[in-house]
Design goal:
By secondary structure, the protein is α/β, with parallel strands linked by helices. It has 8 helices and 11 strands.
């Protein structure tokens, strides 16, 4: 679960979706591709953001890495990850931290940074989202590889209509409006029947051109930007999660 999330998202990951994300295992095709292509030197230091139950960090450790740190903002996720680590004789350093303010980590500390599982998209304030990207840049060493995944606003044809309708409701309720912050459509793969209710947890959806420009403004060089379907198919059509690999 992402660091930097606001209380409503943190609460959801502590309760409704805890079992799914705490015990989730294995890699999807895009994660497998990225980790095998970019996370290669086992002598290097790795940081994973929004680790949840530690799924990605445990997979990286199995590749032979001995210097892995991982954090999450949800305390019981970290407690669960530590329990799994002790059972599996793992040396991963799990800690509670906020992606927007990485007080636990020094500048220029990590060679590989893994911000997958759309962790930053659970930050429901635009300024904190940007802060989290800046913090990733700060703790990365020179020439570090940093991989992100984001919810892609342009990959869902219904997003503009959904955004317009949701923001009409927000305006009527005197709630904060945002075209890119949308309610969860599903919870544990079931329809979220409360998505139009007041004060719902929100996820942040990016546009590819804007997020790559923001990353470059912060100082990153974008190495690769593809949607999930583009890793396996030679197509310009974009479906699924947006993955962006950067270098500092």
């Amino acid at each position: 679960m992402t660091a930097g999330v606001q209380n409503l998202n943190a609460k959801r990951y502590s309760n409704e979706v805890f079992e799914l994300w705490a015990n989730h295992q294995n890699l999807n095709k895009s994660e497998d591709y990225l980790l095998n292509k970019y996370i290669t030197d086992t002598s290097k230091h790795v940081l994973e953001a929004g680790t949840g139950g530690g799924r990605l960090s445990f997979c990286i450790e199995k590749k032979g890495f001995n210097h892995i740190s991982a954090f999450d903002v949800v305390p019981n996720m970290i407690a669960h990850a530590k329990k799994r680590a002790s059972t599996n004789d793992s040396n991963i350093n799990f800690s509670i931290s906020d992606a927007a303010v990485l007080e636990n980590y020094d500048s220029d500390s990590f060679d590989y940074l893994v911000y997958l599982q759309q962790v930053l998209c659970f930050i429901d304030k635009k300024d904190l989202f940007t802060n989290a990207l800046k913090e990733a840049y700060r703790v990365a060493k020179k020439d570090a590889i940093v991989m992100f995944s984001f919810l892609d606003y342009e990959s869902k044809i219904y997003n503009p209509a959904l955004s317009s309708f949701v923001n009409v409701l927000r305006k009527l309720r005197n709630e904060e409006q945002s075209s890119r912050h949308l309610p969860w459509l599903k919870i544990n793969n079931d329809i979220n029947w409360k998505l139009f209710h007041k004060n719902q947890p929100k996820t942040y959806w990016v546009k590819r051109a804007e997020i790559t420009a923001l990353l470059e403004d912060i100082g990153f060089s974008v190495v690769e930007a593809k949607n999930a379907n583009q890793f396996s198919k030679n197509t310009s059509k974009r479906k699924g999660i947006l993955y962006v690999v950067c270098k500092k």
